[in-house]
Amino acid sequence: MSLTTTDLEDIRKIIESELAKRINEIIMPLQGELEAIRNDIIEIYFMISDL
């Protein structure tokens, strides 16, 4: 049994979809943490600039 071009394209689409889901599961929490760190840095900067 050999795979057709359509079969390979379907497999590729499934793999790409699963990879996108996994990447989003990893990146979304990191974006929230990065934003919190950015806000902390801004707050520290203003605290130092007031000195």
Spell out the key features of this protein.
51 residues, single chain, mainly alpha, rod-shaped, 0% strand
Structure description:
This protein is mostly helical and 51 residues long. It has a domain at 25-51. It has one helix and no strands. It has one helix at 5-49. The longest helix has 45 residues, at 5-49.
Q: What average pLDDT do the residues reach?
A: 93
The stretches of 5 or more residues where confidence is low (pLDDT under 50) are: none
Mass-distribution shape: rod-shaped
Number of strands: 0
Give me the secondary-structure category.
mainly alpha
- Taken as a percent bin, the fraction of beta residues is under 5%
Cα Rg? 22 Å
Per DSSP, the total helix count is 1
The span between the termini is: 75 Å
Percent of residues in helices comes to: over 70%
Oligomer status: single chain
Spell the H/E element sequence: H
Reported for the largest beta sheet, the result is: none
Strands, helices and their partners?
Layout lengths: L4 H45 L2
In short:
The protein is an all-alpha fold and 51 residues long. 88% of the residues lie in helices and 0% in strands. The protein has a domain at 25-51.
